[in-house]
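ARCHIVE CARD
Drawer: 12
Card no.: 0347
Subject: one protein chain, sequence and derived structure
Cross-reference: see card 0346
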Amino acid sequence: MPRLGIYGGTFDPVHCGHLTVAQSVREAFALSRILFIPARQSPLRAPPLASANDRLAMIGRAIDGAPGLEVSAIDIERPGPSYMVDTLQGLAAQRPAAELFLILGADALDELPAWRQAGRILAAAQIITVPRPGHSTETPREVLDLHPNAEQRILVHEMPAVDIAASRIRAACARGRPIDAWVPRAVAEYIAAHHLYAASGTEQPGAI
């Protein structure tokens, strides 16, 4: 049975931290593939500054040549807010033989009770939690209460927390500062060529 990792987020922009997490999780949990799934609009985040097409293009450049990593437009193609329960339902229909693993930062796991039909999310996919600075990887009681087998459905990946934030990258772009330490070269070149995030008031919150 294929083991499919689901890595959702705004990816505004995708950065080296996302790639580090994806590659580490894929190896540790023997996942067949990991899908990067940019949200059209996250229900819990400010609207992305880069367009859907730009974010898809940046992910494509970031993972080009990386084994086992691919990008999916399933959320971009679905109108309205991007609810993970809908994403998982769509993927289950597309790939009925796959076992699904949802990759969440510890900060996102804390928010899970606020997600639409969070219990169904736990039923549809196992969750792999990765560390985030300032957040414990211990599963909150509110999350454990979402599903009778939640404790067995949530796996913790012990890896160093990645301290890179997309908001920091956007702010650097707005000030004309280099971002090469945080994003792959192909992504930095794309951002520069398309004048993304330039003087755009990027201090607003956004997904990692």
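Annotation on reverse: The domain at 3-193 is CATH 3.40.50.620 (Rossmann fold). Residues 201-208 have pLDDT under 50 and may be disordered.
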